[in-house]
Amino acid sequence: MPWWLVVGGFVLAIAFGLVVAWWLWNIAEAGGPSRAALRIDAIRTGLTVVAGAGGAVGLLLVGRRQWLNERAQQHREQVDAIARAHQERVQAHVEAAAAADQAARDRATAISEYDATERRVTDLFAKAVEHLGSDDAPVRLGGIYALERLAHNNERYRHVTADVLCAYLRMPVRREVSDEEHVRLAIQRILTRRTRSGPDSWADLRLDLAGAKLDGFDASGCDFSDVDFTGATFSGVTAFDDSEFHGETRFGGAMFLGDVSLRRTRWHVPTDFSAAAWHCTVSFEESVFEQHVRFDRSSFGDQRISFRESIFRRTVTFDHSRFAGESTFGRACFESNASFEHAEFGTAASFRGSAFGGIAMFRRSVFTGPVDFSDAQFGEHASFDRVDFVGGVSFSPVPIERTSAVRARAGAHSIRQLPTTWAEYAIDDRWVGLAPNA
Q1: What pTM value is reported for the model?
Q2: Residue 87 and residue 215 in one domain
Q3: Residue 72: how many CB atoms within 10 A of its CB?
Q4: Over the stretch 188-243, which tens digit does the pLDDT of each residue have?
Q5: Strand order in the sheet with 293-294
Q6: Domain end (from 62, 91, 120)
Q7: What strands, in cross-sheet order, belong to the sheet with 333-334?
Q8: Residues whose CB is less than 8 angstroms from the CB of residue 6 and which lie 6 or more positions away in sequence, other chains included
Q9: CB-side exposure of 131: number of CA atoms within 13 Å?
Q10: Do residues 383 and 363 make contact, with C-beta atoms less than 8 angstroms apart?
Q11: Best exposed site among 51, 268, 315, 428 by fewest CB in 10 Å?
């Protein structure tokens, strides 16, 4: 505020007081005998007005000073806040720059370590694979176990290691080198060990063993994600007991030269056993097939084949298959359709206690030996059209609804126990015909 403005304010206060005093003085002159007292009051009032006006001006100045102090304090607080915010932004920028620099150094270090690890792992992998081509069995075994260790410690190499080991088994057996069977057996054990559930399992392995030569293949308790045994040859004892199959599974055209055990296996996916050849004992007892399964054109040898207490939740087909030995489906459960069209059964066949929930097709099948359907249950249509029961047939003597046996026949000299809804009639000295009751 300019100094002259303050002086002017006080001058105006004095002037206002003088004017008031002059006005009251004039009034006092007309007061008569009390004029002297009135003059004193006029002077006193004028001075009071001057003092009051001066006090008002002083009070105004004090108020203005207080307002200015408050403004100054508010301004200082704003400046301090701006300064603190700026300092915080500067500090954050410094910290972000330091973090980015540290991250860049960490990435560079990680890339260097990754490159060094990749080079080392690649060299180890190449050397291990190179050892597989050696003529010395110990060298080949060393290469195999080096690959296994490398893959176990480096998850990214597990699939390619499995592919390399499977490729070795798919190659022709090297008869000219020593101890080749031990090398191949070691590879089989590695593959089965890494597909079993447990801490050492390699998850989601794809095993491509199409056309492989496998000897004594023991995959009991394995958990297969995706496996291809198409055209593979299994010699010795083969075991898949308690194994589970979750991915694509193929056994088409496989050949089993020794005993095969697939007891309590569980098949979660469609499975193909078409044209497979089974030359020794085969057991699928207590197995569960969750999806469609095909055994079409399969050939079972003259040993025992058992599907006892197996469960087929979807359609199963054995069309054009040949069972040379004893075959049993006792207490098997066919929850959907089951087809044995054009199948040939040799020594004996048993479906005793089996349950057919869907359509049961035995059209044009041939049973050379006796076949037992005692206590079997047929839920929907069952077809025995043009079936030859050469060695005789046994059904429980109860009605079978929705069953056709048109032009079926049985050996004239065989034992026959038919459902009450069937009747037989003579054909010739060799055969008797079977047909529903009229």
Answers
A1: 0.73
A2: no
A3: 10
A4: 999 999 998 888 888 888 999 999 999 999 999 999 989 999 999 999 999 999 99
A5: 206-208, 226-228, 249-250, 271-272, 293-294, 316-317, 338-339, 360-361, 382-383, 403-404
A6: 91
A7: 223-224, 244-245, 266-267, 288-289, 311-312, 333-334, 355-356, 377-378
A8: 57, 61
A9: 18
A10: yes
A11: 428
